[in-house]
Amino acid sequence: MPSYYMLKGFRRPQFLAGVLLLLFLLQASWLVARELSGSEEPDTAEAMRIGEGWKQWHGRGFAGVTALDSSVRTQDQNGQEDRSDFDSERSPLLYLASAGPLLAWPGDFDRQSGIYWRWLPRLPFLACGVFLGASLWYVSRRLCGNTGGFIALTLYCFSPALVQASAAWHAEPEIVAVWGAFGTVFTAIAVAHTLYAPREVVLWNWRRIVLLGVSLAIAIGSQFSLVILIPVALAFLLYVAPVRRGAGTLIWAAACVLAFFLLFAFYFFHWHVFVTGMQHAAWWRATWQGFAVPGVYKQVAVRLARACPAFVLALPAALVTYAVWPRTRYFGNTAPLLVGVLFLALGIARRDIAGAFLLASAPFFFIFVAGVVADLIETQKRSLVVACTLGLMIAYVTWSVASLVKVPRG
């Protein structure tokens, strides 16, 4: 009897989620295969990431800080040190991740063997895509139940933009930053909920402290402007657990120290290089002029639709429902909505890297839509809501797969 109920109540949802994640991995792998079969060498951006990471792995310099490897540093027209010699947007993390798997390759990197070794730099990003999907499933299922979990995971697994980012198909591997941002927000919320337990919370939460610190390091190391997650994490900790704010602040501080240590580790613990990289980091550089340009909002809407074509119908419907139906306005729906809107605003303020922020907003909107739909399914209009949701999902999956099949070689 126990095994039967485990099969029906526990293993079946996880198995179906695993199938969806496998389909996601197959789509991303298909994109990688199409690209590699149509070209003999990596494109310029990927070759640069691999070269910079390979250089650092072999102790020949530091990825993204070219000026420190030169005996003569360049200067701009004003006589200041030229920042173009530094990667002001990210730490060496992505470079090291791209080149790291190549350390296991025993042969030479020639064209004849390229079909094999050129898969290796994509493996970390494919893994991040799967891990983000698994994280999304875990969070959405806890917040919205099995129904909401499957809706959110389906939206994720067939998202053209997230599949492309995981495959690094003619695009920057922004999936790492997205995973880090998602993990930071919901780990902070999870830590805050455990503060209600009558235990020595700081010591008891050491695993979540480590997870929060790692998530922060991954996010900020992949995109310096995601430093905004530090105050966001603190805000959630203090809001969710107002009765234990001292403990929450201490946990947040411990996670920040760990994130700082890991960020330092990306520079292989070379203090001078680390400090110089931090001095040239673009932590903010936001401009609010974009909010006054109507065309910017159209571009944001177009990018969201490209990230998830189902948003064209699902997101406006969820927003209207949230606005008119008080039952949907609880923390499980509101928190992902607020974070998603925050990332949209940051994408408008930082138009040079808007794509990263807009992509990071998508998983939060997936959970928001899934939560609202799950609430609607519990009403007397269940049959109508289920029919509309299934129809939308079938059309979404069909369109995404059909578009993927048409991807040309190269």
What is this entry, summarized?
The chain has 410 residues and is mainly alpha-helical. The protein has helices at 2-37, 44-57, 93-99, 114-117, 123-157, 160-167, 175-194, 201-204, 206-222, 229-240, 245-265, 271-279, 294-307, 311-324, 331-349, 354-377, 382-405.
Account of the 3D structure:
The protein is mostly helical and 410 residues long. Among the domains are: 44-122, no CATH class; 124-173 and 285-410, no CATH class. It has 17 helices and no strands. The protein has helices spanning 2-37, 44-57, 93-99, 114-117, 123-157, 160-167, 175-194, 201-204, 206-222, 229-240, 245-265, 271-279, 294-307, 311-324, 331-349, 354-377, 382-405. The longest helix is centred in the first third of the chain and has 36 residues, at 2-37. The chain is globular and about 65 Å long. Residues 1-9 and 67-84 have low confidence and may be disordered.
| Helix count, DSSP H or I runs of 4 or more residues | 17
Helix content: 55-70%
For the report, how would you describe the main beta sheet? none
First and last CA, distance: 54 Å
Shape: globular
Low-pLDDT runs: 1-9, 67-84
**Subunit organisation of the chains:** single chain
Q: Based on DSSP secondary structure assignment, what is the total number of beta strands?
A: 0
Using only C-alpha atoms, the radius of gyration works out to 22 Å
